[in-house]
Amino acid sequence: MDMTRRDIHNSEVPALCRSCEVRHKGMCGALTPDELLLLSKHTRQVQHTSGDELVGEGADVESYDNVMRGVVKLSKTLEDGRQQIVGLQFAPDFVGRLQAGESPMTAEAASDVEVCRVPRAMLERLVEQSPTLRKRLLEQALRELDEAREWMVTLGRKTAAEKVASLLLLIALHLDPEQKGEKRLFDLPMSRLDIADFLGLTIETVSRQMTKLKADGIITITANRHIEVLSLTRLKARCG
Amino acid sequence: MDMTRRDIHNSEVPALCRSCEVRHKGMCGALTPDELLLLSKHTRQVQHTSGDELVGEGADVESYDNVMRGVVKLSKTLEDGRQQIVGLQFAPDFVGRLQAGESPMTAEAASDVEVCRVPRAMLERLVEQSPTLRKRLLEQALRELDEAREWMVTLGRKTAAEKVASLLLLIALHLDPEQKGEKRLFDLPMSRLDIADFLGLTIETVSRQMTKLKADGIITITANRHIEVLSLTRLKARCG
DNA sequence: CGCTGATTTGATGGGATTCAAGTAGCGTGG
DNA sequence: CCACGCTACTTGAATCCCATCAAATCAGCG
């Protein structure tokens, strides 16, 4: 883990990627100062508002993004319109399918999002040059694979109640890892429809299960999106 | 793709890994002759019969396997026993979670299986030394991630009928990529229970859907496991 | 305030599970 | 060779969870 840290010399880290320092997971954290300098000339900080599409399903991959702030959702759609969200990317995740001409899924801003955008050719050159970056990308791919498989269990084997509890737990733990104790306070970065599409449910079922969690005193809900988890332990107990 | 081929010199490929040549996907195909020679001293060809556990969920990772023949299933289990299969590995896939002390899931022989087993330390040293091997492993991780996400759509959004059709199609296309035309003939490498655990269904539902596909003239079933797909087109049309 | 889209709540129906028999395939041993 | 038992699979009936359809309520905003 820590060997990647050698590459980082704070004084030389461009402002663009400053937030990468925080957790050492973004691609910038895997580069040497020289590479970072090179990179900084070709990257653009891009703002997206909720709902913006970063890459379409089947579209040509022209650039890659590093999430700096906000949440990006990855989704796939069947011909008849049924949709499934297949991943959520939080800062400082890397977004984009390497080694593929076209994106196998849609990437869309789930909340307001800030990304560090790199042209495809540029990133691929860097990947060739930097073993540390390749290692970083392999790490993320493996972590995402673990997450995808964990979620397959949720999709295939959990009840609606367990699914909703599992998602709330996932978000509570991802969005603000610093909060301690039994309680968590956060805004859902996604609509009821997004939640339904993530869990393989309908919005009505999601709503009913949320209401049930509220009625049972495990969470409170205000203004639809604002969630307070009153007892992480009891929430975990409902995740199946 | 083809740049990996440079590493292969047929005359020097140890017998152990000969079948790797066929499709250029196994780890052996990513090594130089020197590395292959080194590897061959530390690998063992291991036979497993259907049902054998290669690695348990949560068990320490002591070695990695390269599937040479047969099918390995990856599964995860909830505390109360509900099980979900999260992946199938066909030859010449690599099995084992890199960069993790313990396996996040169970790996089990779904059919009789032959693997090329490498001690953990050995493989990790090779990974450090061989950029081509790292690249190969990144490729597989990305491909598995694509497959996992594709399957999430199936688990979350497809009906039981579509799920069963999707699995039959998956297996038909994986097991024998050489067969051409509209028909496919193969033996299911897994029981009805395995299929149910893969699709997030019960064995009864799987059975009913198979019967329906048979009644509709899309497949024939003999001896439970022996499947003939009569029309790939019509099968695809049922995949949702 | 009144419009609009998002969410909740209610009533109903259907698809998948559950529970329960029944059947087929297969090795064993009489 | 066939009875026997075993396991895997199939089939049937009842139940239940979640989807669907419909309506009400809420939140945000000009």
UniProtKB/TrEMBL annotation, chains A, B:
**Which residue intervals define the domain Cyclic nucleotide-binding in the entry?**
27-144
- Keyword vocabulary terms for this entry: DNA-binding, Transcription, Transcription regulation
- Coiled coil: present as a keyword of the record? no
| Occurrences of domain HTH crp-type (ranges) | 158-233
Q: Which domain of life is it from?
A: Bacteria
The record, for SUPFAM superfamilies, names: cAMP-binding domain-like, Winged helix' DNA-binding domain
Q: Does the keyword Transcription regulation apply?
A: yes
What InterPro entries does the annotation carry? cNMP-bd_dom, cNMP-bd_dom_sf, Env_Response_Regulators, HTH_CRP, RmlC-like_jellyroll, Tscrpt_reg_HTH_Crp-type_CS, WH-like_DNA-bd_sf, WH_DNA-bd_sf
Among PANTHER family, the record links this protein to: CRP FAMILY TRANSCRIPTIONAL REGULATORY PROTEIN, FUMARATE AND NITRATE REDUCTION REGULATORY PROTEIN
Q: What is this protein called?
A: Crp/Fnr family transcriptional regulator
The scientific name of the source species is Rhizobium oryzicola
Q: Tell me the classification of the organism that encodes this protein.
A: Bacteria, Pseudomonadati, Pseudomonadota, Alphaproteobacteria, Hyphomicrobiales
